[in-house]
Amino acid sequence: MTRVRNLTSFLTLGLLLNFCTPKKDNSETAMLAALALAASAPNQGAFLETYAQIAFQNYSDAYADVVALREKVSTFTGKASPSAQDLNEVKTYWRKARRSYLQTEVFRFSKGPIDNPALTGGVELEPLMNAWPLDEGYIDTVILAGTITKQDLIDKNAGECNGGTCPDGDTAKNISVGWHAIEYLLWGVGTAGNSTPGSTITAANFTTANGSGSAEAKQSAYLLYATEILESHLLQLKNAWDPSISNSYVSKFKASSTSFENVIRGIARLSGGEWGGERMTGVFGGDQEEEHSCFSDNTKNDFYYDAKGLENLFYGTYQGTKTINGNGLKNLLGGESNYIGERITTAEQFCLNEFYEDPSLNQTCNSSQISSRFDTMIATVNSTQSADYKIFRYDIQPAVQEIAKSLQRSAANFGFSIGDDGLVLQ
Fold first, then answer.
1. Which helix (H) or strand (E) holds 368?
2. In whole angstroms, what separates CA 54 from the centre of its chain?
3. Are 403 and 299 members of one domain?
4. Which residues form the Imelysin-like domain (predicted)?
């Protein structure tokens, strides 16, 4: 707090001196910009406090949800011959756990513990948790063909591969752990152009009655280990934001003079690079393999909860196992605030009805939302574009990109600039 007060005093003194000095043509503009910066400094601190509170609570909820998933997986893999209903329950827990995790993606690219290996023992956690897209052939022919151990799964998360070294001959990633590896283990691949999730995996794929060396026993062990690994990484992130833990990252975050700039850059990169860039533009070619959660068809939930994560920070509120009402980013963005708020609303135009395993969880859709399954919608790209695809292509994706552009414009008011590095702006 002392640092913020000193900054405000310094800038105020500069303004007073400026009043006593002959003005250049742009002096009034410069003065107003400096005044806005001085006035916003205390509010930045309040926003960063709320940001830290939401980060801790969101990661706490994501961790608790993955603990529940791991417990369900432990029960499932402990059965010699699990049933189809058992498998559906695990799939539903995976879907539910994704809802809280996806909201944490807004914390990426901000030099925090999710993707800064300097803060997590030299190991970058995000590629071990949510790397995408993955080459399912790598899992089938490299991972499942060998001995399944927890450390080996981590070691074999090798990342990028060249077409000649990928088992499928494509350029997807050699991914062995994380959300999407677990997703593939649970659903398998779908039939091109179909309207259901992957169907090549059944409960029989996890039967352990034939001994530990069987393919089914390996798949069962793989599922459990991968879930345990995900749980351990989320615990690291939860602890990093825990203010009650001595020397945790959150204390450094709130004390750093660069945190606010890092946060703005991170949100812009997520909106204009990852979420509204690679993930959304990837499906414009009509390739269902480019769908973010192509095995489970959970993609509409992916995009909706990414938007929800940004909404949390924008309004300074969070609804989880604990409710947070604090200081949002909207209070700092001046004329850009309403513009960004409107585009967050547009980005949420997804009807969440992809719970194939438990239809009771599906929403009732209306015409302003994307109601069809995402893979079915993609299938219309190269023919007559469906109404849902048009909403996605011409309303939702441009709105997410505009959020990044608006943050680029806003940055100048805070004395820094955001270039196009890491952004895929159109």
1. none
2. 15
3. yes
4. 56-346
Q: Are residues 187 and 295 in the same domain?
A: no
Q: Are residues 272 and 330 in the same domain?
A: yes
d(CA 341, CA 6): 32
My answer on whether 187 and 233 are in the same domain is: yes
pLDDT at residue 362, as a whole number: 94
Q: How far apart are CA 376 and CA 196, in angstroms?
A: 9
The DSSP call for residue 394 is I
DSSP string, 120-134: TTT--SHHHHS--SB
Three-state SS sequence of 226-253: HHHHHHHHHHHHHHHCCCCCCCCHHHHH
- Number of domains comprising the chain: 2
**8 Å CB contact between 171 and 183:** no
pLDDT value at position 424? 76
Q: Count other Cβ atoms within 10 Å, centred on residue 329.
A: 26
State how far the Cα of 261 lies from the Cα of 264, in Å rounded to an integer. 5
Per-residue DSSP letter, 322: S
Asked if the model's pLDDT at residue 30 lies above 60, the reply is: no
- The last residue of a domain, from among 202, 224, 256: 256
* pLDDT tens digits, 173-206: 889 999 999 999 999 987 765 667 898 999 999 9
Least Cα distance to 157 among 132, 121, 137, 128 occurs for 128
* Total-model pTM: 0.88
pLDDT score, position 194: 62
Residue 245 sits in the same domain as residue 390: no
Whether residues 170 and 231 share a domain: the answer is yes
Q: Tokens 């438990």 appear where?
A: 358
For residue 309, give the amino acid letter: G
Q: List the beta bridge partners of residue 325.
A: 317
276 and 313 belong to one structural domain: yes
Instruction: Look at residue 8 and tell me if it is in a domain.
Output: no
H-run or E-run covering 325: strand 323-325
The encoded tokens of residue 262 equal 């890092």
Contact (Cβ atoms closer than 8 angstroms) between residue 280 and residue 400: yes
State the residue range of the domain holding 400.
257-421
DSSP 330: G
- The pair of three-digit structure tokens given for residue 236, joined into one six-digit string: 């690291």
